[in-house]
């Protein structure tokens, strides 16, 4: 396909997505009263601190700092392993069970179940949203 045709195709897809979102946004906001999950993350980050404090409640939470430091340490070890593999361990964040699950009846499982990776971004976003919405998102992925 020529480059212009790809551009028209992408523009048409974006216009379709925007129109679909416009059709359902009123129902979603007014009648369902469902919050936008990603907006909750941003609103928690920019929430103003209580009087006399420099940081808001989220940034004063030890759970946030433990989680951030843990993720930073895991990524730091992975990066150092790339440069110094003899001195720093590689922490695997994914699994591949296709070799183990190669016999029937496991052979017929979808490949999504046989291979997966841990995503800290998804874990962080689902921390901020309600459990009902998180379960719905997980169920349809």
Terminal CA distance reads 30 Å
Shape, per Cα inertia axes: extended
Largest sheet: 2 strands, antiparallel
Beta-strand content: under 5%
Rg is: 22 Å
Walk me through the structure.
- This protein starts with a helix and ends with a helix.
- It has a two-stranded antiparallel ribbon.
- The longest helix is centred in the N-terminal third of the chain and has 30 residues, at 3-32.
- The relative contact order is 0.08.
- The chain is mostly helical and 141 residues long.
- It is built from six helices and two strands.
- Helices cover 59% and strands 4% of the residues.
- The chain is extended and about 55 Å long.
Detail the topology: elements first, then pairings.
Blueprint: H1 3-32, H2 37-45, H3 62-83, E1 94-96, H4 111-114, E2 115-117, H5 120-128, H6 131-139
Antiparallel strand pairs: 1-2
Which tags fit this structure?
single chain, mainly alpha
Question: Could you give a short description of this structure?
Answer:
This protein has 141 residues and is mainly alpha-helical. It is built from 6 helices and 2 strands.
């Amino acid at each position: 396909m020529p480059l212009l045709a790809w551009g028209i195709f992408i523009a048409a897809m974006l216009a379709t997505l925007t129109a679909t979102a416009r059709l359902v946004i009123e129902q979603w906001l007014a009648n369902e009263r469902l919050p936008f999950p990603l907006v909750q993350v941003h609103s928690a980050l920019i929430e103003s601190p209580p009087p006399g404090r420099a940081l808001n409640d989220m940034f004063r939470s030890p759970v946030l700092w433990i989680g951030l430091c843990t993720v930073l340490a895991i990524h730091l070890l992975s990066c150092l392993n790339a440069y110094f593999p003899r001195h720093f361990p590689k922490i695997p964040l994914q699994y591949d069970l296709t070799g183990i699950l190669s016999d029937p009846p496991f052979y017929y499982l979808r490949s999504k179940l046989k291979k997966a990776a841990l995503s800290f971004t998804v874990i962080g976003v689902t921390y901020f949203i309600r459990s009902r919405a998180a379960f719905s998102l997980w169920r349809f992925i």
